[in-house]
Amino acid sequence: MAFITANWNPLGEAFYRKIELYEMGWSLRDGLKECLVAAAPYGGPIALLRQPQRPSSSARPQLEIYSSSGANMASFPWKSGPVRQLGWTVCDDLLCIQEDGTVLIYDLFGAFKRHFSMGNEVVQNQVLEAKVFHSPYGTGVAIVTGASRFTLATNIDDLKLRRLPEVPGLQGAPSCWAVLTQDRQTKVLLANRADLYILDNTSCTPVTPPGLSLQSCSIVNMAVSFSYKYLALFTDSGHLWMGSANLKDKLSEVDTKVRTPPKQMVWCRRPKSQQPSVVIMWDRLLLVAGECTDTIQYTLDEESVCVAELDGVRIVGGSRHELLQEVPSACQDIFKIASMAPGALLLEAHKEYEKSSQKADEYLREIKEQSVLGEAVRQCVEAAGYEHEPETQKTLLRAASFGKCFLSNYPPEPFVSMCRDLKVLNSVREYTVGIPLTHTQYKQMTVQVLIDRLVYRKLYPLAIEICRYLKTPEYQGVSRVLKHWACCKVQQKEEPDESIAHAVSVKLGEAAGISYSEIAARAYECGRTELAIKLLEFEPRSGEQVPLLLKMKRSQLALSKAIESGDTDLVYTVVTYLKNEMNRGDFFMTLRNQPVALSLYRQFCKHQEQDTLKDLFNQDDDHQELGNFYVKASYKEKKLEARLSLLQSAVDEYNKAKNEFAAKATEEEMKLLRFQRRLDEEMGEALLGLSLQETLHALLTSNFHKQAEQLYRDFRVPDKRYWWLKLTALAEKDDWEEMEKFAKSKKSPIGYLPFVEVCVKQHNKYEAKKYVSKVTPEQKVKAHLAIGDLEGAAEAAIERRSEGEISTVLSRCSPTTDRALLERLNRARSTAAKK
């Protein structure tokens, strides 16, 4: 604790410190000399392209990927073309930009993923320089060709190449250039000696930085801040200009007194900091410049590379990995010599308390008198987050916990949250993991992204422990990690299918939100079809199983799974796929072995594919259904001959099916159609297609009684039906004379009450009265009531001495007009009741 400020260096009103993150674990004979280096931000991996030690025609460069602690993750000889630039995507994939404009993408472990080209023009003119940048759209690539033209791709995952306008007077590569992202637009800022230009999609605009010293003759280096808000320019006179990236505001200008062009220049600025600062690196010198005229200088004893971060600069060397950053204000307030800040007093109070000294009470009284105990606790908690040494973190958190004891309403969330964050950060900063995140970077990155990065590095146990420790919802945490583990597991070709399937099922168990179909799909992509099928057995959702089985050409199994699911839509999906993939005979044979699928397909064909339905019935020798098919098809035919032909086919099929009733009924339908055609030809009546009953009705209403009689005899229409049809038809056309003759022709099989009713229905009570006398005694009351004859109804009811019929008549009588009849009926009812 006594030496915390030993590595602090003042610059203006701020302090800067250099913290050693790791002693690098790699073994590089010449350090980073003759190496092309790219390090990913947020404590990401480091890629080296090392040139062969003894140049020869057979010697090849070596591409190596390390963690931030120098642990080797991948190494392989580079067999492709000359590489101009290395860079990392936001997902920690390595980009290798070749001089022919081809960009090759590798994963963290050196596995090739894909490639793309920056255009044909680049192939011809070669790449002079290239840069990889990150924008709101994703990871981008910018290049400048031998023709002094810039080509830009703002998102390599959605590749759209943009060729930027020419720069006047530019020959070869510019003095220096950088990519800017402003207002969701990506532009290129370049310097051609003393001239500065901004290139966008349509124009090349000359710009002048405000207040740039006249002593400068040429701009030799430039740097854009991590947030793309600030710009730094270095001139050949040794002056450093700092300002806004839109070139509207100047922040400061510093004379570094070094005229040699720097190897690297990056911004070193914490979020919310008021101190602009830039780190400039030469071969053996590292210089930090800010708003004031003073600078901080560090001597470099080895070849190094600067990596811009959100809140500082990482310095990667052959033996060490360090972090250079502005000391956060909370740490300054607490640890600065003779500081009287609340946090500093609380830390001293806690130290004295641990010594059992009375001074602890004095410090506490001083803090409480100023009413800043809450602020003191907040400072200690915040400062703990900025410290890398666990012992310093613990000291600050213990002081904060000590101060909280004297506060009644201090919220516990910030303290608890910081403890959790630091436990996670300390675990990923371990040498074996090698992700030196700061608390600021961790909060910007989010837990989910950190889990993703651990999973990508195959650090599954640590990822699971962090998820459980932070109580992340299972489907977002543990289940997601296990799914990635399983997808990686199925790619291990040395293990047998049974072993992997068992391991996956045991490990995943009942974990929520895991889709075995996704794991099986990965196995299938790796050429392990049988393993994919075994894994699908663990998938509870048939809707997830079936599509993958179809993709794997396991259609029979897919059909069985679809039928087991009971989901008709899924069965239809498989059947449609089979129909398109198989020949007709095999398709029908497959369906014959699956009755449910066959039944559903028949239902589909009934509505959509009638001809296919006929083929299905033929295949199965289902004569009954074939007969039904021909009958239904006959109704759609407009020409009689075609209809009769189909009906004859139906008769043949019914006979084969030994369905005599259906065959006879169909034959009679054919007979009726021929009869109707003859009537149409003779009388001009449109009878074709009508049913037997409709045909009889049409003939009777048209006075074709003889033809109706013939139809009645030929088709053996029951007497009661025929009398009803004729009676109804005669009543509809008001042929009362013919009705009377019909009633007298012979005894009515339906009685005479229907005659009364149809007459009344046609509002002809006069004709109805003619048939009342012929009605049987049981129906006389009903007949009299139908024509409104209450007297007659009363006589009939009294004569039959039926209490029910008397009550019916009584209900129809009016107390005012039928008083005498009411009395008579009441007496008759009383008499009937006594008997």
TrEMBL record:
Keywords: Endosome, Lysosome, Membrane, Protein transport, Transport. It comes from the Eukaryota. Coiled coil: none annotated. The keyword Transport applies. Residues 514-829 form the Vps16 C-terminal domain. One of its GO terms (cellular component) is late endosome membrane. It holds the Pfam family Vps16_N. The keyword Phosphoprotein does not apply. One of its GO terms (molecular function) is actin binding. Plays a role in vesicle-mediated protein trafficking to lysosomal compartments including the endocytic membrane transport and autophagic pathways. Believed to act as a core component of the putative HOPS and CORVET endosomal tethering complexes. Belongs to the VPS16 family. PANTHER family: VACUOLAR PROTEIN SORTING VPS16, VACUOLAR PROTEIN SORTING-ASSOCIATED PROTEIN 16 HOMOLOG. Core component of at least two putative endosomal tethering complexes, the homotypic fusion and vacuole protein sorting (HOPS) complex and the class C core vacuole/endosome tethering (CORVET) complex. Their common core is composed of the class C Vps proteins VPS11, VPS16, VPS18 and VPS33A, which in HOPS further associates with VPS39 and VPS41 and in CORVET with VPS8 and TGFBRAP1. Interacts with RAB5C. Interacts with STX17, MON1B. Associates with adapter protein complex 3 (AP-3) and clathrin:AP-3 complexes. This is Vacuolar protein sorting-associated protein 16 homolog. It comes from Oncorhynchus kisutch.
